[in-house]
Amino acid sequence: HPPSTWRPIQPPTGEPEPSAKFETSQSGTPAEVQAEAQIQTKGETTEPSPQTTPKAAPSGTHGGAAIPTFTLAEHESSEDEDDEDNLPPPSFPAMNSAQRTSALPAFVAPPPKPALMAPPPMRAPSSLMAPPPRIVPSNLRALPKPSQSMHVPTAGPLPNRSPLPNRGPPASNGSLGPPAAAGPSLKTPNARNRVLLSPGHSPLDWAHLQRSGKNLSGVSSLTRVTPAMLKHNNGRKGKPSWSSYQGKVYNITPYLPFHPGGEGELRRASGKDGGKLFMEVHPWVNWENMLGECLVGIMVTEEQTPADSNGSLEDMD
Ligand code: HEM
């Protein structure tokens, strides 16, 4: 329980002794305090000295002498007038406190609109984001035309590169391919009818062979090839295998073991125009680039070949 509070009340001028008013949470109302004080002061025998505190004594010892009494009644009026005592405890903070005063605008008026901050800029999608690129034919890379020659890089992957060939002995499970004695190529049951090329016959090996400077055409100079000549060089009975493509004749003999589709497939174009077969299987392959060093000459009619010449192009003029 909180301690009792007391407050001295100044007596009127000339009052012999102070009086006290007690307000306790336990002692009850001021009327009860007053009654108690009256009891204590009854029976005083002598005139009270202004300097001493009245003593309480049994009521019968003084023979019924008048015993002065005093009460706190005269203070009750002031007590009643003391409105502050009846006021409820002030709420915190006080209504006139600086704390309330300083915070008053916040309670009274809502915070101002975000006038201190610039409003967010209106988003114009076209100014913040670049439009997606348009897909127009000019942005697309053109596919190489069959007539264009393809540059063969000296390093890195080759166009239309086939899997690396087996360069070592076959593994015990045979997964690395056939032994070297199995021939230049072997048919395999893969989905694209590719063959396992024999060692040393990879596309890269072919690229190296084309740049070796060796004569892969089988002729000393570019030759005028008549249809009869093309048909004659069909690769059989030790004859070279020639094939024409877009008016040019190529000796495909050295390329046979390098052909990813197998020798047998390539031989189907021997002694004739191989363009149709070629385009049916792999139009993306650059014939001229693959067989550039194998160029024999150009196709001419039978009449364009002088009977007294060997068909060399130097003789045409
Ligand atoms: C004479 C010129 C020819 C050249 C230079 C040539 C070259 C090639 C090349 C580079 C590949 C690999 C293709 C790739 O990796 O995507 C290939 C595959 C193949 N070639 Fe040829 N080829 C020729 C003619 C032929 C002919 C005349 C046939 C059939 C009649 C043929 C049938 C195949 C087959 C079946 C494949 C395997 C399947 C494939 O890879 O798509 N090729 N050829």
From TrEMBL:
Biased composition (Acidic residues): 77-86
Domain of life (superkingdom): Eukaryota
Gene Ontology CC terms: cytoplasm
Pfam families xref list: Cyt-b5
Gene Ontology terms, MF aspect: cytochrome-b5 reductase activity, acting on NAD(P)H; heme binding; metal ion binding
Keyword terms: Heme, Iron, Metal-binding, Signal
Stretch list, region Disordered: 2-97, 115-199
Domain Cytochrome b5 heme-binding: 231-300
Compositionally biased residues, Polar residues: 37-54
InterPro entries linked: Cyt_B5-like_heme/steroid-bd (IPR001199), Cyt_B5-like_heme/steroid_sf (IPR036400), Cyt_B5_heme-BS (IPR018506), Cytochrome_b5/Flavoprotein_Rdt (IPR051872)
Family statement drawn from the similarity comment of this UniProt entry: Belongs to the cytochrome b5 family.
Name the UniProt record assigns to this protein: Cytochrome b5 heme-binding domain-containing protein
Organism: Melanomma pulvis-pyrius CBS 109.77
